[in-house]
Amino acid sequence: MTDSTTKAEQIKAEIHNLVKEYYDLTHGAKKHVKGQDFVPVSGKVFDHTELQHVVDSALDAWFTTGRFNSKFERELSKFIGIKFALTVNSGSSANLVAISALCAPEWGDRAIKPGDEVITVAASFPTTINPLLTYGAVPVFVDVDSETHNIDVKYLEAARSVKTKAVVIAHSLGNPFDLAAVKAFCDKYGYWLMEDCCDALGATYDGQHVGTFGHVGTLSFYPAHHITMGEGGAVFTSDVKMKTIMESYRDWGRDCYCEPGKDNTCKKRFEWKLGDLPYGYDHKYIYSRLGYNLKITDMQAALGLAQMAKLPGFIEHRRHNYRRLTEGLQDLSDKIHLPVPTPNSNPSWFGYLITLKPSAGISRKELLDKLQEHKIGTRLLFAGDLRKQPYFKGISYRTVGDLPNTEIVLNDSFWIGVTPMIDDEMVDYMVDAFHKILA
Q1: Please, are residues 227 and 257 in contact by the beta-carbon 8 Å criterion?
Q2: What torsion do the CA atoms of 400, 405, 411, 413 make, to the nearest 10 degrees?
């Protein structure tokens, strides 16, 4: 080791110590004051190690995707139990890349084409299905069940038609949908299955991680989610061809698969003949797909890598908060419906979904206003019913039945937090507030 290298390592160690000292002064634990500080519904959980990772990445002066991202992708795929994980700049981009891959012409007749139908639910987040609309596919909405608020699988057969090509649905608030039934349905007819796992990292069904049952899964690393990169997401699969196609859509649509900063991985960079380009055109600038640059920076990956070490603890904390809330609110079950895990699953809860019953004697707005007065954060179940959203006017879709449970979600459902930011004292405070309001 040279003198300059030794000196650099010493300086880095000093920087790490200063970063920890800075974290302790500015971001360290602060006492939550009941009734004065908000009980958060979601948010980032971090300590000095995340900041040290980000600083390390900055000191590398490698500002695009690099060594931290490569390690993060390996760690993520290992955690999930999947062969390939590719980072992208958001969960929405993850869905775009995944759907783009299912529409790729390489799949022949199996590819999703304009006018093809895709079975999904309306009680969802917009960007789960927006990429389908971009490619001209037609969503077919079925209802959710009243217990788990996931897709009601008894409507799957009624939803299919000669135009059906895929099932694209999310695991609602970290609670897996009935994967046995949905996968059997897709296998029976040869349909694609895309699992939106943005709210469900760490959830399992029959002991297997969600996202590994279908052909492709997606994740979000926005601060509200199980781990964060600030902004970021991932697509994952065990199919080599699917991985190659998704990587191309993520990387400008290029045919080349060299990593950033590397050349001639294929050993014939100037020996390709593709499209109407002249023979020998630089493979780094040959584009086989209509893609975009949807990569993340190495600083984001460094943050995510530090979060990965904490992920098992985050998941268990969310499950603990779910159990404690359920125990505390169980005696109000005549007025509110509490979230129920899907049979044969172990959810990785994103939020605690509550639905008001007619016997509650209070409207959702009135209840949310009172929770706001008690400094308790709440959220609705995203779009509620996508069909009712302003942007959906003029969109082509098909509906199976009247979606009565989706209507209930739209009008009477909301969720509170189970984030690791919430401790037992905050949970007890929320439970007490619900009892006072609903008394």
Answers
A1: no
A2: -130
Return the sign of the alpha-carbon dihedral for residues 240, 246, 250, 256.
Answer: positive
Cβ proximity of 221 and 232 under 8 Å? yes
> Residue 399 forms beta bridges with which residues?
141
Cβ atoms of 175 and 349 closer than 8 Å: yes
Q: Which of 87, 37, 43, 81 is nearest to 350 (CA)?
A: 43
CA distances from 51 to 7, 303, 434 (A): 22, 7, 37
Query: How far is residue 154 CA from its own chain's centroid?
Result: 26
pTM, two decimal places: 0.96
What domains lie within the chain, and their CATH numbers? 59-308 (3.40.640.10), 311-438 (3.90.1150.10)
**What letter represents residue 288's amino acid?**
S
SS3 75: helix
5, 112, 151 from 168: Cα distances, Å:
51, 12, 10
Q: Is 225 a catalytic residue?
A: yes
Can you give the pLDDT at residue 258? 82
Catalytic residue among 225, 226, 283, 337: 225
- 34 pLDDT tier (thresholds 50, 70, 90): confident
Other beta carbons within 10 angstroms of residue 63's beta carbon come to: 11
